[in-house]
Amino acid sequence: MGHLLLAAAIAAFTPPLAEAQAPLPDASPALWIAGDADTKIYIFGTFHALDGKTDWFNDEVANAFDSADELVLETIIPKVPTFAPAASVRPVGAVGPVAGSATFLSSTKLVMSSARSQGLSTANGADIILRDAAEVTGKRIGGLESFEFQLGMFAKLPPAPKQASAAQSAETMKALSGVLTGLQAAWNRGDAEGFTPMLEQMRSRSPDMYQMMFVDRNTRWADWIARRLEQPGTVFVAVGVGHLAGRDSVQAKLARLGVGTARLN
């Protein structure tokens, strides 16, 4: 309903040209393609919380999305559909209860507080924008993992560290804010490998967590993409950009299966 009210407001009021907002800065988040004679699978790296201050849903990304018959996300977070009937939202290749939509960074309250301080919101996240667009245009929507699987994985994460002092928390908030700002800037310019240091830090400090959150999941997702190539059609797969960076990226897993990928932007 909120989308409909916003559309009505825009239709009812067009500001004078002098008052129109300046165009948003252009962004080019990373996009790949895998395919054969009768199948195209676009692989897009999302950022789950954005500030809404850049125009990223354009050019190659928009063209790829528009050409696709189906949008496949990490998972389908339950919500009341705004435009599409529930039957149009279906899980694909669900493998039982791992987490999907939120990255490890966004799974902590401290990081979410830091994100909010930088004006980042999941409402502006690429996943939500893409899902809303798919619902509006009637595209099929699927998830690589079930929502229950996500909840199960988060339940396996190590407990939060003991509460720090106010001064320590403030210093951590400041540091995290800088990290998030840098990661969003890397995403905007299509620098997927800018996420590699974060992945390597997790791999060295929490190898079990890294295995569960990235290695295992990227392997399953690559297997799904390889199998999907056996069916004709065009699919737009959107997963967190961290899954498309580093030594264990989805592209690296696909290469081991003999499936090549090409960067489009």
Question: How would you describe what is shown here?
Answer:
The model is unreliable at 1-20 and 81-110 (pLDDT under 50). The protein has one domain (26-158, 166-263). 42% of the residues lie in helices and 13% in strands. The protein has helices spanning 2-12, 59-67, 109-117, 126-137, 147-155, 166-188, 196-205, 207-228, 250-256, and strands at residues 31-35, 39-46, 70-75, 140-145, 233-240, 262-263. A hairpin with a 3-residue loop joins strand 1 (31-35) and strand 2. Helix 3 crosses helix 6. The two termini are 35 Å apart. The protein is α/β, with parallel strands linked by helices. Strands 4-3-5-2-1-6 form a six-stranded mixed β-sheet, with helices on both faces.
How would you summarize this macromolecular structure in one to three sentences?
The chain is an alpha/beta fold and 265 residues long. Helices cover 42% and strands 13% of the residues. The chain has one domain.
The counted number of beta strands is: 6
Number of domains: 1
Shape: globular
The span between the termini is 35 Å
Rg: 19 Å
Across the major sheet, the strand order is 4-3-5-2-1-6
Instruction: Tell me the helix content.
Output: 40-55%
What sequence of helices (H) and strands (E) makes up the elements? HEEHEHHEHHHHEHE
Unreliable segments (pLDDT under 50, ≥5 consecutive)?
Answer: 1-20, 81-110
The portion of residues forming beta strands comes to 5-15%
Largest sheet data: 6 strands, mixed
Structural class: alpha/beta
Total helical elements: 9
Average pLDDT number: 77
